[in-house]
Amino acid sequence: xxxxxxxxxxxxxxxxxxxxxxxxxxxxxxxxxxxxxxxxxxxxxxxxxxxxxxxxxxxxxxxxxxxxxxxxxxxxxxxxxxxxxxxxxxxxxxxxxxxxxxxxxxxxxxxxxxxxxxxxxxxxxxxxxxxxxxxxxxxxxxxxxxxxxxxxxxxxxxxxxxxxxxxxxxxxxxxxxxxxxxxxxxxxxxxxxxxxxxxxxxxxxxxxxxxxxxxxxxxxxxxxxxxxxxxxxxxxxxxxxxxxxxxxxxxxxxxxxxxxxxxxxxxxxxxxxxxxxxxxxxxxxxxxxxxxxxxxxxxxxxxxxxxxxxxxxxxxxxxxxxxxxxxxxxxxxxxxxxxxxxxxxxxxxxxxxxxxxxxxxxxxxxxxxxxxxxxxxxxxxxxxxxxxxxxxxxxxxxxxxxxxxxxxxxxxxxxxxxxxxxxxxxxxxxxxxxxxxxxxxxxxxxxxxxxxxxxxxxxxxxxxxxxxxxxxxxxxxxxxxxxxxxxxxxxxxxxxxxxxxxxxxxxxxxxxxxxxxxxxxxxxxxxxxxxxxxxxxxxxxxxxxxxxxx
Length: 550
Prior knowledge:
By secondary structure, this protein is α/β, with parallel strands linked by helices. Among the domains are: 13-43, no CATH class; 361-550, no CATH class. It is built from 14 helices and 22 strands. Residues 1-8, 55-85, 490-495 and 498-503 have low confidence and may be disordered. Residues 94-128 form the F-box domain. This is FBD domain-containing protein. It holds the Pfam family FBD. Residues 186-405 form the F-box/LRR-repeat protein 15/At3g58940/PEG3-like LRR domain. Residues 53-85 are annotated as: Disordered.
């Protein structure tokens, strides 16, 4: 992304502000744009350990709630809803738990409630100094009120809370606090965290002014396992060498950071597994992935000019939701890469093994990713260059098992030659590996149907066709319309269940799916396929006849 003046890169927040102000003379101001962006990037964050008081009742997650008195039974279960005390009940059994368990209980409570535990008994009071503290500015309220404490007061309150606690600080989450004119409180908070073995830190600057530098002490929080930063100038790692030996998850949101500082972090954080960027401008402008530990890299609506996977022996997923100008994606060494996408054929120029991937090229072994299992691609089916890239990409991924294709509306500037799909042969992934095809946003264009026909015809191992639409009724209509129209299906669709006795074993299950593509799914290594959520409540069986000549 070019700076507002039309020449340089956005290296400072002054550049960002000028760029936003010059985007449109009649549009929103820079402050309005930033004020809109910040709540959005905060919404991308992983959920807090304990929900805010105003949201606690809206969540049903057992992992996010803890109560000394609540029961997990429902009101519909009379036996569970009525507590029948056993003989000898009424004693304080909770206080008989071990110190470690009691400290764990306290650490899971909201900040103010955990502090109030000290008044329960001398037994609990003695645990407070050793209890890992969990601080969230969403829990800061005026006494007896639901009204939040203003940001400038909250900064001081957080600083005093962290500094005064005699024990460790397990986690700090700050997303609602302004540090304007509170630089000392900010520096004191970060310095205290470094000394108190913080493991989880989410630290956002509610902007204005934008030019708020992140304290250097954040680089010496040696106990950190997870770090999310938003709307900061990242410290200069040349002057302040990172000491983050336990960091496993790092997210940089709308943060200005130099390329060399990213390189330094990757070199020094030797346990880092997940690296993510969100809504960042030229930070870094070029991301070079050299890491022996990284498992996932996520780029979410940033303006990176190039992503170079140079040496990443453990990298399993490379995910992006890209916007802006065309950029390079170079994969040199990633022997365990299994998940890739969304590759946008209009925005991304793909290089594999030093070879530029072009439509119709002869794919050599060096230009293949044999480890890839899941691939997602955005394509404009009215653009012949993008359409011709699809079969080439399939040849680059010989072991592909799941293919996601998102159809993007486009112009009719180019026309795909008649008979293009019919003239194509098969490839390794279609003959031996592809099991699932997921269609996103299909518009029933002729080229879409021809592509689908090609996959159904050549995909000998294909077992599942999923259609992602916003409403289930649309999915039903789409499936009933699309599958009978394309060969070699017979057009015979059964209701959910086992195919009839005449099945040859090549039948395809057709089912709706929900859009699962989100930032949180992208960074969650436990989510096998972050691009969709299959729905098995309704399934059809499309029976097709086998043509041995295919």
